[in-house]
Write a structure and sequence with these properties.
With 90 residues, this protein is an alpha/beta fold. Strands 1-2-3 form a three-stranded parallel beta sheet, with helices on one face.
């Protein structure tokens, strides 16, 4: 039941390049949407400030998606993308 602001305050003094926190979909921070099943695609309409989508191969992906999308197996590509995005927002 932690507030996101409290979590961020704890880690503020650490020299982190990027921090990923699960949950808090309604907060207005940049988000990575994880799609494991077809039912998860509703998240693309429910959350704001989406940086990219990471999907499992078992999840059918809408090819008209305008947000960058990466397979869960493309770890190098999505980590490079996220680090570049986060460094540019400092």
């Amino acid at each position: 039941s932690w507030q996101l602001a409290d979590i961020l305050a704890i880690y503020d003094s650490f020299p982190l390049d990027i921090m990923l926190i699960e949950g808090y979909k309604n907060e207005h921070y940049p988000k990575v949407v994880l799609l494991r099943t077809a039912q998860d695609q509703v998240l693309l309409q429910q959350v704001t400030n989406i940086l990219c989508v990471i999907y499992w191969p078992s999840c059918p992906l809408d090819l008209s998606l305008t947000i960058p999308a990466f397979s869960i197996h493309e770890e190098t590509q999505y980590m490079e993308f996220l680090l570049t995005e986060m460094r540019g927002k400092r």
